[in-house]
């Protein structure tokens, strides 16, 4: 395979949740520029349309599907419609997620907040995998990228107490390993992408709008800065493309060196 074929996604179909903003929009733009058509899934249809317009400006096809990934019936309908529209699904990027609404220690954490984070960040990933895997298996393979976090690999409380988010992202990482083992012989590669601190994302808007908190995050990042949203594009393309065909069940960390400490 030639170098220019390693990252070629011509005529592939990518379903991206949370595609309306932040990292989700970056995933959609990146994969479309590599040749993929994109299913822009988001709870905010207007935001998804903005991303779809960018995809179409790159010469690829895009559709908008409004979906709350925490609602299994909506996910089922979304995957069915995506498959019916394009005839196949090749790549699933499970990006939709929320942060802890009110960060606090476990003893003071609201159970309603716990369930909301787990419903979206963990159950949503399961629902999307559960509904897409039969399509991937039937067509002979595909790629799943589960967007986790460095806080799924270590606790975050030394910076900010985020018990639900950390628990959900840790579970996503191990769910990724489990699915990879189950579907390896079906030519389905399943990997987790674990970003560090990125500017320009909906998930981090509250935190990164606080200069003092940005200073804290910058101080614990060995590279001495936070990432721009577009710096996720290279790792995402690698995991979505033939370049990663012999990689499955792995966790790719892009954190400026935070976890190396």
TrEMBL record:
GO molecular function: oxidoreductase activity
The species this protein was found in: Nocardia aobensis
Annotated transmembrane regions: none
EC number(s) stated in the UniProt entry for this protein: 1.1.1.-
Family, as annotated: Belongs to the short-chain dehydrogenases/reductases (SDR) family.
UniProt entry keywords in alphabetical sequence: Oxidoreductase
Official protein name in the record: SDR family NAD(P)-dependent oxidoreductase
PANTHER family xref list: SHORT-CHAIN DEHYDROGENASE_REDUCTASE, SHORT-CHAIN DEHYDROGENASES/REDUCTASES FAMILY MEMBER
A Pfam family this chain is assigned to: adh_short_C2
Enzyme class: oxidoreductase
């Amino acid at each position: 395979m030639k170098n220019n074929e390693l990252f070629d996604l011509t005529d592939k179909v990518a379903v991206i949740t949370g595609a309306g903003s932040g990292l989700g929009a970056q995933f959609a733009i990146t994969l479309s520029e590599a040749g993929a058509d994109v299913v822009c899934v988001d709870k905010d249809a207007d935001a998804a349309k903005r991303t779809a317009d960018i995809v179409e400006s790159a010469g690829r096809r895009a559709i908008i599907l409004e979906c709350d990934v925490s609602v299994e019936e909506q996910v089922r309908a979304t995957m069915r419609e995506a498959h019916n529209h394009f005839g196949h699904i090749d790549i699933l990027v499970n990006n939709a997620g929320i942060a802890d609404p009110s960060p606090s220690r476990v003893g003071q954490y609201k159970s309603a907040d716990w369930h909301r984070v787990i419903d979206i960040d963990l159950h949503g990933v399961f629902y999307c995998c559960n509904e897409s895997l039969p399509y991937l298996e039937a067509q002979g393979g595909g790629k799943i990228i589960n967007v986790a976090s460095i806080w799924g690999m270590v606790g975050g409380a030394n910076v900010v107490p985020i018990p639900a988010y950390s628990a959900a992202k840790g579970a996503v990482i191990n769910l990724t390993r489990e699915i990879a083992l189950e579907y390896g012989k079906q030519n389905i590669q399943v990997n987790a992408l674990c970003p560090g601190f990125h500017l320009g994302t909906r998930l981090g808007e509250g935190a990164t709008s606080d200069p003092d908190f940005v200073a804290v995050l910058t101080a614990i990042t060995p590279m001495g800065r936070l990432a721009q949203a577009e710096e996720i594009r290279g790792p995402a393309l690698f995991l979505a493309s033939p370049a990663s065909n012999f990689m499955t069940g792995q966790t790719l960390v892009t954190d400026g060196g935070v976890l190396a400490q």
